[in-house]
Design goal:
The chain is α/β, with parallel strands linked by helices and 433 residues long. Helix content is 38%, strand content 18%.
């Protein structure tokens, strides 16, 4: 089923519909048996629906992800002190600064997990609908937490899943509402929030201790830091991009919109750099950067500058559409002072043609042992860079595409060709302990 779901966006919906029918046809069951079945079916339906939207990796050449060390996070609260919009990005790209000292960071490429919270008015409304006290406690995992904190900071109230609908159907006192709730599993449109769902079905009023088990947890939105501890900058700043739904590194959506304002507070966790940048003082590094990847490149460049490193850094900026490359001006001015040692900028769709004049220099850097990093999450960009590298290998005497792919596989295996991990993997590494 999992293999089929990756190619069939309707797999989770169809499975949930059929399972809902079967649950409705079951004879008398003990309450514990029925709750177990509903939870199992709902969880499987949600998992398949999520799997159907997971993008497949591009091409046959798989570039490795190499973690610097097992990630460990510490949660704390931040206050927004300044927001600067980047020119040429129609207000979508911003540099957000916080009232926090960057000395707490360790290495270049560190990331910040920003945790959204639910609206306090919505939490109060939900507690009123359920007749629950905000000072009561609920069990989440191995811990008991106050009900108000669970609803405000831990579980999502803006998502109605098939599992939630099936469980609420079991708690509905009116058979007609129970049937209608099961039908929502297969419905193309559902209420968008838990409060709206409970208003629509007033006989579905489960205990709060059970309801929170059916809700998905809030997940952070991961953004890159612009500097590391050893640079001259002491303010904690990140590069963000406003989008309708955050799915990639650096993106923030409406769930954080109210909190990303000057003077507001939000919870955060620092994630260590996902890249195993070489420790050798003379190791050359080539960075293909796009979007949020420019912030990681900047932090590494400033780190090397603060260390007075003689190692070479080559930044290759990749753009798409009319928007300029974020931080383009800093890379260009830094290049005039030899940090980075070389800076080039190209359109992704014209990568092969636009970078033909760079192949000799690129090949020399690789022969000298340079490490190459793809600081982008866009599969189209990664595929374009891989194609360009395959073309480079063929021009340098490799007899076939298979031989060129083998060369790239060797670079990846030795951590000299590294891609950025998916933001979903980064988000799972965060916690609020």
């Amino acid at each position: 089923m999992a293999k089929g779901a990756s190619n069939d966006p309707d797999a989770g919906r169809r499975l949930g519909h059929r399972m809902g029918e079967l649950l409705g046809e079951l004879g008398p069951l003990e309450p514990d048996q029925r709750r177990w079945l509903v939870g199992l079916v709902g969880g499987l339906t949600d998992a398949l629906a999520e799997l159907a939207h997971t993008p497949a990796p591009p091409g046959a050449t798989q570039i490795g992800v190499h973690w610097q060390r097992p990630p460990q996070t510490t949660a704390f609260s931040l206050r927004v002190t300044d927001i600067t919009e980047l020119a040429g990005h129609e207000g979508k790209r911003q540099i957000v600064s916080f009232d926090w000292n960057a000395d707490s960071l360790a290495e270049p490429g560190s990331l910040l997990a920003l945790w959204p919270s639910n609206e306090p008015d919505e939490v109060r409304h939900l507690l009123h609908l359920l007749g629950a006290s905000p000072h009561s406690t609920v069990e989440l995992g191995k811990h008991r937490v106050p009900a108000w904190r669970a609803l405000l900071e831990i579980v999502r109230l803006d998502e109605v899943t098939p599992r939630l609908c099936l469980n609420l159907a079991e708690s509905a006192r009116l058979p007609a509402e129970a049937t209608a709730l099961r039908a929502l599993v297969d419905a193309p449109m559902r209420p968008t929030t838990l409060v709206a769902l409970l208003h629509r079905f007033p006989s579905a009023r489960p205990p709060l201790s059970e309801l929170v088990q059916w809700l998905r947890p809030l997940t952070p939105q991961v953004v890159p830091l612009l500097a590391s501890a050893r640079t001259a900058e002491r303010a904690l700043s990140v590069l963000t991009k406003k989008v309708p739904r955050a799915t990639q590194l650096g993106e923030v959506d409406v769930r954080l919109e109210q909190q990303l304002r000057v003077g507001e507070w939000l919870n955060a966790s620092v994630l260590p750099s996902p890249f195993a940048f070489p420790d050798a003082a003379n190791a050359s590094i080539i960075l293909f950067v796009e979007g949020a990847g420019t912030a990681i490149a900047r932090s590494l460049m400033l780190e090397r500058l603060s260390r007075r490193s003689k190692a070479r850094t080559w930044v290759i900026g990749l753009t798409s559409g009319t928007a300029p490359l974020p931080l383009d001006g800093e890379f260009a001015s830094g290049h005039s002072r030899k940090h980075p040692a070389r800076y080039d900028r190209h359109e992704v769709t014209e990568l092969g043609q636009g970078m033909s004049d760079l192949k000799d220099a690129f090949w020399r850097w690789l022969l000298d042992g340079a490490h190459c990093y793809l600081l982008t999450e866009r599969t189209e960009t990664e595929a374009a860079v891989v194609d360009w590298l395959l073309e480079l290998g063929l021009e340098r005497g490799m007899t076939s595409v298979e031989a060129a792919r083998g060369w790239l596989d060797e670079l990846a295996a030795s951590a000299r060709l590294v891609r950025m991990p998916a933001v979903s993997a980064l988000a799972r590494l965060s916690n609020l302990s």
